Amino acid sequence: MRDLVVTENITLDGVIDASERWFSPAGGDDVDRSDQTAALTEQREAADAFLTGRRTFEQMRGYWPAQVGRDETGVAAYLDRVQKYVVSSTLEDPGWEPTTVLRGPLANEIAALKAAPGADIVVTGSITLVHALVAEGLVDEYRLFVYPVVVGRGARLFEDAAGVPPLALVESRAFRSGVVLLRYRPA
């Protein structure tokens, strides 16, 4: 059975909403992030499916395809080739292949994806979807890239922690940038 992995960039105070511009998907500064990029590459190589909500998908579709050939991190090339699954009742034409739109009940759609052959299924961003996945108990692992930033407001990963089982730390890795990767699985 495949694992559903939530990968989020997160602040010290638990915010995953990047509207305060504390995070840039392409880096955007002169900090050496080569060790962090290597960790992201490891994660991409362990996954063959990318799950997202409609709004995040549309934002990514508007940005990443234009970065293919210019992006040194490998994210653009990965997103261009990986099987993408979008949870949406309104998206008609994804316009970014290979993409499948999931319209059925969330728990049923995710159970079918997890039961299918393949590697990890990764979710990133997609705040509304992630909250629903957490509430349904569908998350097998949390990979949190914790940024040394406090923003004080914005959507948090665990808005309502009711029903989240105890978590066990399975890896922690500090990067030169000051970012720390924390990986948790249900205990």
Topology as a string of helices (H) and strands (E): EHEHHEEHEHEEE
Q: Give helix % range.
A: 25-40%
Structural category is alpha/beta
Total beta-strand segments? 8
So what's the overall shape? globular
Q: How many helices in DSSP terms?
A: 5
Q: What Rg is obtained from the alpha carbons, in whole angstroms?
A: 16 Å
Spatial gap, N to C terminus: 18 Å
Please list the strands of the largest sheet in the order they lie side by side. Answer: 4-3-2-5-1-6-8-7
Q: Characterize the biggest β-sheet.
A: 8 strands, mixed
Mean pLDDT: 90
Low-confidence segments, given as residue ranges, are none
Approximately what portion of the residues adopt beta-strand conformation? 25-35%
Description:
The model has no long low-confidence stretch (mean pLDDT 90). Strands 4-3-2-5-1-6-8-7 form an eight-stranded mixed sheet. The chain is of the alpha/beta class and 187 residues long. It contains five helices and eight strands, in the order E-H-E-H-H-E-E-H-E-H-E-E-E. The chain is 26% helix and 27% strand.
Which key phrases capture this entry?
187 residues; alpha/beta; 8-stranded mixed sheet; 5 helices; globular
Give the helices and strands, then pairings.
Layout: E1 4-11, H1 34-45, E2 47-53, H2 54-63, H3 75-81, E3 83-87, E4 99-102, H4 106-115, E5 120-124, H5 127-135, E6 141-147, E7 167-174, E8 180-186
Parallel strand pairs: 1-5, 1-6, 2-3, 2-5, 3-4
Antiparallel strand pairs: 6-8, 7-8
